[in-house]
Amino acid sequence: MRETRKAEVQGLVAESPVYGQVTRLLKRINQGDAQARDQLISQVYGELQQMAGKLGANPLDTLSPTALVNEAYVKLADKDILFQDRIHFFSLICRAMRQLLIDHSRRRRCQKRRGDWEAVSLDESLAGSAVHEPSRVADALEALEKINVKHCRMIEFRYFGGLTNAEIARGMGLSERTVATHLKIAHTWLLNYLAR
Fold first, then answer.
1. What's the pTM?
2. Alpha carbon 91 to chain centroid, angstroms
3. Which helix (H) or strand (E) holds 155?
4. Residue 105 and residue 159: Cα distance in Å, rounded?
């Protein structure tokens, strides 16, 4: 029964107009269509720049949102990855951007004991929310991933990938209520970790 539900959800993701075009482009890329790569990047570039901004890329820094998107895309393009769908693509590129920011932040900290870092917020409203250094958030996410991979992916999708609970639910084969519950638990765990 669970497999049937998962297949239905995957079918919905592939057929949805929101997901359909990107998923079709990813399938063409998987088949070696170089033109589809160009179409994909022009289709999702704006979303990727927004993700980069949420991750803490600073336009005044050497690793601007544009540079971060470009580096992450090149990093993924160099690997032989078969993309399943839009959510899989955004998950991988989000992780690549996060890792690039972590590496950049750590290099800067080594250069200047405590560099000027861009804060990362784990609150969607952003107004008056607590902000954290990107490398601290990365450490917290790595710790969360060791405890619960599903929670870590949900946080990545929601706060860094900008996906809605409905999109996360479809992509992970879960109900929206389950996603909302797990996100609350993961969010609370992260905030407690960062408060230490």
1. 0.62
2. 5
3. helix 149-155
4. 19
